[in-house]
Amino acid sequence: MYYFVALVSGHVMSMLTESRERTLFLQRRLMLSAKRSAEEALDQVEESRREKERLIAAINHDLRQPMTAAVMHLDVLERHVARHDLAGVAEQSRKTRVAIDLLGGSLDHVLNAADDAHSSENSRLEIVAVASVLRTLRDTYAPQAERQGLQFRVRLPDERLVVLSNRKSLFRVLGNLISNALKFTPVRPDSGSGIVVAASMRHGICRIDVIDNGIGIDADKLDDIWQPYRQLNRGHKDRPAGLGLGLFLVRRIIDQLPGHQIGIRSRPGRGTRFSVTIPCDALTEMAAGPLPIIDSVHDEADFTALNGAYVLLLEDDLEARLAIAERLEEWGVIVACGADLASLHSAHADSERMVDAVVSDYALQSGLNGLDAFDAIDEWLGYSPKYVLISGDDLTKIDRLVDSPAVTVLRKPFSPSALAGHLLAAVDSSRKLEAS
User: pTM of the predicted model, to two decimals?
Assistant: First the structure.
């Protein structure tokens, strides 16, 4: 009997011990798993922090070029003012404005290029005049090339060349390629040193080349240049190190644009040629249908069509409201302004004119958004004029905008020319409606 009790007791103790060991084993596994998860989470947080720091530094780097161009143009502008050279003042003012516009555009576009959530904005296709892009590149990068003692030439196509692309994306791609060329092209006293940007059309393909006679790239390194945070030629102490994001962003943007490709040919010690190719067959297919709005540069003669137009402006930021109103009045536009719906209604109440267009910020401090404000304005007026919605955010995913042909979106930062393009379309539509 004693033996039996001892046997049973031993068996029970064994089972209890085994169960306890199994529980402890599972608890240890859970603890190790939790520890690994915590370490992975900490690693992700740390990597996110480093990525944020790199991105901020990249934005700073990307803004330096247009800032440098603006400073150079302002210096020349002051000299033209001292000489009372009005033609020179006007030209340098235009170039300075382009450079300042690029400061905001560069910040916006680098953030978009680094964020997949905004890839639709970067790849939205529109008709782009290649010569206009190349002229802007020349105005932006020629001052730095001259300061470095390098030649900078742009060969414009003989014929009018347009492509189906994204203007900001195409500018950023070519700008990064030019910045890279300026960085790695030394001044040679025995021969001309510099960069050439040329555009051509052949067999339905537009090709834009960025060519330099710099230090070149070794053949076994050609695949490495597209990697983020990779810097070749670090041994050259006189070269600015940079962050190695320029060509990474070039590849990323090119991959987002349908039909766009980029190629490279390079010889160490002789130079490098980057070639961006864009198929133009799609333009023929689009000829029978409506074309996207082109954010192009307008001449002063174009603005005469705005003379006498009546526009409502809803903007709760005082400085922005005054600046936009002054610009509109320079074009001869009659403007009724308001910081909110009540003040705008009051400003418009005494007018018996038909409203040609309404311009409003999307994010209003009153808690309404611009689309809600448009509904209220429709009720006042009893009809729906054309609307221009200003926003710093990507609104392409708002279904209501897709279903509202009367509303167009103007993305911040925008140029006066871009605003004029939207208003010219609105005023033309309004006048055709009145005539009918």
Answer: 0.53
